[in-house]
Design a protein that fits this description.
Number of strands: 17
Order of helices and strands: EHEEHEHHEHHEHEEEEHEEEEHEEHHE
Number of domains: 3
CATH architecture of the largest domain: 2-Layer Sandwich
Structural class: alpha/beta
Strand content: 15-25%
CATH class of the largest domain: Alpha Beta
CATH superfamily of the largest domain: ATP-grasp fold, B domain
Oligomer: single chain
Length: 347
């Protein structure tokens, strides 16, 4: 019996991912789901559900250890950046229970989660990234924005650490005011609106990252790795470029994207499941914009398409390195739909 504890069970796709874990064909699986919210989306789909403190709470790790011991957890799989880092910080405590923590070492997680650090790392290993630099002062921010806009350029301002497009500003010269960008959390605005409405907030966030504006398509690469070797990669173009909410994917079977995944995995000596985000530069080249230190919720799309990522992860935990599986043909679409289910009976 494999007992998997998953964190951050409140995501929109958590119920589907929990169901996919429980429907394993090769492993008898029990799922323990946790979240800081009592009404998390995945609550009714796991065998057991518990509310735990947030990852930055001093009681978080002890709460996880208690659940590992109560239910005989064999694998801990973090589904959020913060929980992956907290658990990796206390890896010895977690693994002394006999459970396996399925995430990278702490250095790799910090490298992936900090945007500036990840950009420097990728550049040093010859992996294509956007043009970017750090802005540390109010004067430098004003000067750099003025220069970019007077040169008729467009730019992006991002916090050093964020998730899901939060507090990301795209200053554009082809719009007036502020526009919705496919329902994303990104703020797409003209220069005047940025200065009037958002400038002071960005000043308070310094230092920030400034980078060139990128273009569609927006892509995810679901990645399973073992000891620095790529086991499986599935590139997916987002039907909703912001990724949130998930509207579906178009599978992309290209050697260039697979090579990017191989290079990222090798550079960080990764094992387990991760998500690489990419967009295109002005010349159409795919560039890495973010390394996520945990799997994407939309990995469910790849699993539904026949790539058994969770089965393969459990194989790795059992000491078996699985072979790669053929991915859907290039251009194949997969979309979500609403479904209904009786609760599993988690308490």
């Amino acid at each position: 019996m494999t007992c998997i504890l998953v964190t951050a069970a409140g995501g929109t796709l958590a119920p589907l991912n929990i169901r996919l874990l429980r429907e394993s064909r090769r492993h008898a699986v029990t799922v323990v789901a946790v979240d800081s919210r009592p009404e998390a989306a995945g609550k009714d789909f796991a065998d057991h559900f518990s509310v735990v403190p947030p990852a930055n709470d001093p009681g978080y790790v002890s709460a996880i250890v208690t659940l590992i011991q109560r239910y005989g957890v064999t694998i801990v799989l973090p589904w959020s950046d913060e929980e992956a880092i907290t658990l990796a910080t206390h890896r010895e405590t977690i693994e002394q229970t006999g459970a396996l923590l399925a995430c990278a070492d702490l250095w790799s997680l910090h490298t992936m989660s900090n945007k500036a650090t990840s950009m420097r790392h990728l550049s040093a290993h010859g992996i294509r990234i956007p043009k970017w630099h750090i802005v540390e002062s109010v004067d430098s921010l004003q000067r750099d924005i003025d220069k970019a806009m007077h040169d008729n350029a467009e730019l992006v301002i991002k916090p050093m650490q964020s998730r899901g497009g939060r507090e990301v500003y795209v200053i554009r010269n082809d719009i007036v005011g502020q526009v919705d960008y496919y329902g994303s959390r990104e703020c797409h605005t003209d220069w005047a609106t940025f200065e009037k409405t958002y400038r002071q907030g960005v000043n308070a966030q310094l230092p920030v990252m400034m980078m060139e504006r990128l273009f569609l398509p927006a892509l995810d690469i679901d990645v399973l790795a073992w000891q620095g070797k790529l086991v499986q990669a599935v590139p997916r173009e987002r039907l909703n470029p912001s990724g949130i909410p998930f509207r579906g994917s178009i599978f992309r079977d290209t050697d260039a994207l697979t090579r990017i995944a191989q290079d990222v995995v090798a550079s960080l000596n990764l094992s387990w499941l991760y998500d690489i985000d990419l967009m295109s530069d002005a010349h159409g080249n795919p560039v890495v914009i973010e390394l996520n230190p945990r799997p994407s919720g939309s990995i469910a799309a790849s699993i539904h398409a026949g790539i058994p990522f969770y089965e393969m992860l459990m194989d790795l935990a059992a000491g078996i390195v699985p072979s790669a599986v053929a991915i859907p043909e290039d251009g194949r679409r997969i979309v979500p739909y609403m479904d209904c289910s009786f609760p599993v009976g988690a308490q």
